[in-house]
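JOB MANIFEST
job_type = single_chain_structure
chain_count = 1
residues = 196
[input]
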Amino acid sequence: MMATTHALFGMALGAVALFVAPEYAAVAIAAGGVGGLFPDLDLAGDHRKDLHFPVYYSFAAAPALALAVLAPSATTVAAGVFLASAALHAAGDALGGGLELRPWEATSEEAVYDHFHGRWVAPRRWIRYDGAPEDLLAAAAFALPGVLYAEPLQRVVLLLLGVSMVYALVRKRLVDLGELLADRLPTGLAAYVPID
């Protein structure tokens, strides 16, 4: 899934606070968005392994959410929603395509690394690849609660949805452009660019 889909899902998750603890809604929504994006910061490293911990984030999220319920504060709510959103991101990557340059070809059987069990989880391909039409549809669905948000969170939701739409339109062309640019890089720099 697109990073924006994960962020919008995290924000929708945080929006639950609008109904149970509205005084913490803004921090919960923001923490959900950041938690949804956080695992993808490993793009520069070993993607879907370095910061993707489907089991460990879940183990951490359960007591953090319990603490947020028992002793609500901006800090406990933010921590609980951040961890829950990161857990759902990491686990949700198994619903998408595998780790490959052209995931629409479905050649990889590695979706996300499960550190707890020491193995790669196979992709389910419910969302065939990041930027697929069904990914954009999911992003739009997760953006719907954004109409309830106060500013500036509404604008953030619309911005993320806009980025999602543009990315979905150019997704397949980006691979060709990336390969073209990688071929023109100096040899020493090209070694650091992941193209396969």
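[summary]
The chain has one domain: 3-171.
The beta strands are 112-114, 119-121.
exit_status = 0
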